[in-house]
Amino acid sequence: MKKLASILVLVFAVTFTTQAQKKRGGNGERNSKLTAEQHATLAVKKMTLTLLDLSEKQQNQIKPILVAKMTKRQAAMAERKADRKDKKRPTADEMFAMQNKRLDDKIAMKNRMKDILSKEQFDKFEKMHKKRSKMAMHKTKGKKGSKNNKRDQRGDRS
């Protein structure tokens, strides 16, 4: 009986340790060490290699746009991290302003990409983004640990 109890304790200890390591060392940490320029270069090359088949001219036009986007994103992430450290929560007006700005940036990015890409490339670009956003939504769907979400997963929607 003592052996069984010690084995169970060991299994739980290993399980909790691996879960803690997964939370700390995900892709975000590895990628955060890259500069905005490096992120943009990788993104442009991925676009070229996937469906878009970008020309050299298009790559040169898209790269500065992505560098600016990545720089803004990294600055916003650092600001949010500092706010989280100070346990500062944004007000409803600040949340509205952030979401409004994010959507405005998305619209501007879409318009710039529409100007640079051909019709076929832009259609493929749109499909890629829809697919990516669906995957992201699916990924974050189960992460919220609320009681309502657990009920939804079981099928109780009361």
From TrEMBL:
| Position of the signal peptide | 1-20
Q: Which residues form a coiled coil?
A: none
Cytoplasm listed as a keyword: no
Residue ranges with Basic residues bias: 127-148
Q: Which UniProt keywords apply?
A: Signal
Q: Where is this region: Disordered?
A: 120-158
* Basic and acidic residues bias spans: 149-158
Keyword field contains Signal: yes
- What is the protein named? DUF4890 domain-containing protein
